[in-house]
Amino acid sequence: MKLKTIKSEGLAHNSYYLSDENEAVVIDPRRDCEVYTQLSREECVKIKYILETHRNEDYVVGSMELKNMTEAEIAHSKALPFKYGEHNLADGDALNVGRIKIKALHTPGHTNESLSYLVYPPDSAEAMMVFTGDALFAGSVGRTDLYGKTAQRAQAEKIYISLHEKLLPLGDHLLVYPAHGAGSVCGHSISGQEPTTIGYEKKTNPYLQLGKEEFTQKVLNEELVVPRYFKKMEELNLNGPPLLSELSYPKPLSLPAFEEEIQEPIVMVVDTRLPYAFAGSHIPDSLSLWLGGTSVYPGWLLDTNQYTVFVHERPSDIDIVAPRLRRLGFDNMCGYLCGGMNQWQEAGKPIRSAGTMSVIDLKSKLEKREVLLLDVREPSEWKDEGYIEGAELIFFADLPSKAHLLPRDKPIAVTCSVGNRTSIAVSILERAGFKNVSNVLGGMTAWTKLGYPTTKQ
Questions:
Q1: d(Cα 327, Cα 8) in Å, to the nearest integer?
Q2: Strand partners, 373
Q3: CA 152 to CA 56: how far, in whole Å?
Q4: First to last CA, the chain
Q5: Can you tell me the distance from the alpha carbon of 164 to that of 3, in angstroms, rounded to the nearest whole number?
Q6: Each residue's pLDDT tens digit, 232-284
Q7: Residues 6+ apart with CB under 8 A from 41
Q8: For a disulfide at 66, which of 23, 33, 207, 380, Cβ 3.0-4.6 Å?
Q9: pTM of the model as a whole
């Protein structure tokens, strides 16, 4: 029996490839599936089943893609009317892969159809591991607010029962493999512990130390961001997304072809260079979205129907960006400027630049009341880590709809943790017509390292 974890960076998504003898199963595959077929070829085994723990909301599930490549059968919960798949599982249903038995456990709460999968090794009546989906994470549990705040208490009570009556009694020895790791938006403060066990979580997971009412209040009080693309992911993962073979790959564009594309009002220029490069010069009205942020932030900022063209640091960056955006359902990627920003500048095309400042400069300007400070981190960061007194607090993904709340007659300094999300915010404000906006490079990390004061309220 062999197990391989496949991580999708940024999303902090874990999928799993489990094989025994000449058969394999994949749990919660991502949309770009070559990694699983490569593993099966290396082992000379057949992928027999594809298991989904729930209708995922933070990425496009790759089940149909992988089925198209392997003819494996898809299994998921019968509690939701999926439009695809061969097996609709109920609590206690079992499948066999090689000599392994896999049993479905209904563990609702994160979503009502959520399943966990118990794995029994060959010739054993005792389970060895469990794939918990978004029910139980290392150090945390699945978020319970996806059906709205009015339904959250009921969902919190459901997941509490799933944890204490279904998962925790399975035995302290059981290895736990969740669908997400640290950094995922599907839970609050997920730990980086990998792998973990039921016993370890019983001792260390703060959610599992609480009674039912305390647990419910804790999750109700959490402030978790609901990215705008979640609804589209739920739709695609219920009905089945288009196959990648039906989509065109983003094309390399000459300067004239690139200019022709951006004349279309439905096309947005996305600049994936680092923030200081964007600040130095960029195409007017482009969106700054540094390469590391392309794995998740497009879904917080853009409509999934948005048409995009890219300015990269290097042409090969498209091979990083394209799979990441497709995992989020962004299929309308037209192409990228072959020669990058250098070609644009050397042709004498119009450019803009953005201001930058250090935290030392920021402190001085705040003391002299020369600048308005805008903090664009997540609400949980303001609450847990504090913020600079007097700062305007607007989450960067809310800026397109809230920029009008900011004054246009005063310089604005924008901060986040280090300056990456700030670059996104600066570009959003520029697109909204603001003229005097600066990125505080180093952000709150540099501010606190210098011992400057913060407040929590």
A1: 9
A2: 413
A3: 18
A4: 52
A5: 27
A6: 999 999 999 999 999 999 999 999 999 999 999 999 999 999 999 999 999 99
A7: none
A8: 33
A9: 0.92
DSSP 8-state secondary structure symbol assigned to residue 362: H
* Fold of the CATH domain 2-233: Metallo-beta-lactamase; Chain A (3.60.15)
Secondary structure (DSSP) of 136-185: EETTEEB---TT-HHHHHHHHHHHHHIIIIIIGGG-TT-EEEESB-TT-T
Single-letter residue type at 441: L
Point out which residues pair with 437 in neighbouring strands: 412
Fill in the amino acid letter for 395: F
Query: Helix 63-70 to helix 34-43 angle, to the nearest 10 degrees?
Result: 40
Structure tokens at 348: 């004498």
The CA angle 228-404-364, to the nearest 5 degrees, is 105
Mean pLDDT value of segment 426-437? 96
Residue 261, H or E segment: helix 255-262
Task: Please classify residue 88 by burial: count the beta carbons closer than 10 Å to its beta carbon, then call 0-12 exposed, 13-18 middle and 19+ buried.
Answer: middle
Distance CA 176, CA 200 (A): 10
Q: Where are the domains of the chain?
A: 2-233, 247-346, 355-449
CATH architecture of 355-449: 3-Layer(aba) Sandwich (3.40)
Distance between CA atoms of residues 218 and 146, nearest Å: 16
Joined together, the tokens standing for residue 90 give 């109920």
Architecture of the 247-346 domain: 3-Layer(aba) Sandwich (3.40)
For tokens 């918990």, what's the residue? 132
Question: 115 forms bridges with which residues in the sheet?
Answer: 106
Chain segment 288-341, per-residue pLDDT in tens = 999 999 999 999 999 999 999 999 999 999 999 999 999 999 999 999 999 999
2 CB neighbour count, 10 Å cutoff: 11
SS3 315: helix
- Residue 425 corresponds to which tokens in the numbers above? 């915010």
Does 247-346 match 355-449 in CATH topology?
yes
